Write a sequence for this structure.
């Protein structure tokens, strides 16, 4: 018997690929929530918030940032991973929930490998090694020698025991013999404030927010973590120039993600709009360069390329962690 199909099929009967196209064409038709697991105004939060604002303008719907800091960014990352995969919850994630947390936590409530759909890459941060103006050092070698002479007497601001702070400390101890007392803070700006006040000896923080205070004499910038000197502080040497060959994977990156399962057409549309924003000269100057993201990272990165980048970054930083003497807990 011949089965006759109606001329027009309801949306529920269309092919998955075709439906994805229909969804993407009408997306978004209501406000989009963007979860950022960091305090408002922190260096890694600023680019994700700025991109959310830019997407609001180009896509005609509010992209509302919701800050969910705490617990090594686990709270916010978990909330994003478990949100409905409809494209109306996105998240701005740094490499902490994606590559660092798996090194320090035996178990995580979210699936860091398969729980997210990468959308767009915002760049890798250039870090600055900053020291208290009260500390009698002016170079990284001098900082290392003082820490070696007085183990645990110099303090180092971190974002907790499972952040890049312990990675830097572990690397310094393993490769130079310098040992610092780790002091945890809720946010990097809070830690930098402690450095400026002389409550903490040193730390590594994104270069952008440190430039003004350093030029005002409120902190010392001993080195930058980029491959080349940072244009805004041309007199500050790179770590490599002063003999510290630290892995580039120690520099945090930031990107926009969605929960796994969001239709591919929506992911592609968001990525295309992000690439346009990233290549806008005004956005570059006002947000990317000013925040301290690597200039070489202004790339037209597709979701697939971003996913490959994350996989490679995870492999590299696992090796770097091993070299720093950091071992993942078993429980």
């Amino acid at each position: 018997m011949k089965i006759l199909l109606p001329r027009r099929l309801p949306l529920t009967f269309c092919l998955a690929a075709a439906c994805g196209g229909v969804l993407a064409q009408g997306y978004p038709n209501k406000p989009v929530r963007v979860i950022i697991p960091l305090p408002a105004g922190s260096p890694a939060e600023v680019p994700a918030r700025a991109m959310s604002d830019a997407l609001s303008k180009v896509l005609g719907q509010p992209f509302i940032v919701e800050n969910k800091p705490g617990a090594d960014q686990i709270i916010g990352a978990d909330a994003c991973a478990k949100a409905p995969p409809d494209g109306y919850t996105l998240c701005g994630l740094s490499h902490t929930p994606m590559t660092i947390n798996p090194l320090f936590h035996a178990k995580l409530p979210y699936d860091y490998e398969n729980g997210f759909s990468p959308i767009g890459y915002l760049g890798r941060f250039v870090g600055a090694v900053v020291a208290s103006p009260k500390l009698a050092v002016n170079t990284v070698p001098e900082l290392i020698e003082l820490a070696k002479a007085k183990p645990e007497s110099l303090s180092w601001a971190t974002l907790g025991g499972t952040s890049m702070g312990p990675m830097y400390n572990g690397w310094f101890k393993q490769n130079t013999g310098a040992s610092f007392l780790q002091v945890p803070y809720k946010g990097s700006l809070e830690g930098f404030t402690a450095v400026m006040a002389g409550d903490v000896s040193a730390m590594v923080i994104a270069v952008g927010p440190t430039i003004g205070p350093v030029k005002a004499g409120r902190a010392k910038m001993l080195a930058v973590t980029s491959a080349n000197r940072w244009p805004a502080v041309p007199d500050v040497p790179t770590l490599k120039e002063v003999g510290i060959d630290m892995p580039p994977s120690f520099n945090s990156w930031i990107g926009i993600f969605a929960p796994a399962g969001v239709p591919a057409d929506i992911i592609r549309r968001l990525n295309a709009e992000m690439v346009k924003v990233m290549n806008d000269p005004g956005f570059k100057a006002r947000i990317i360069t000013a925040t301290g993201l690597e200039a070489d990272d202004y790339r037209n990165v597709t979701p697939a390329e971003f996913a490959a980048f994350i996989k490679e970054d995870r492999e590299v930083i696992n090796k770097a962690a091993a070299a720093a003497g950091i071992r993942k807990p078993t429980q």
Remarks:
- The chain is about 40% helix and 15% strand.
- The chain has two domains: 18-125+252-323, 127-250.
- Residues 303-323 form the longest helix (21 residues).
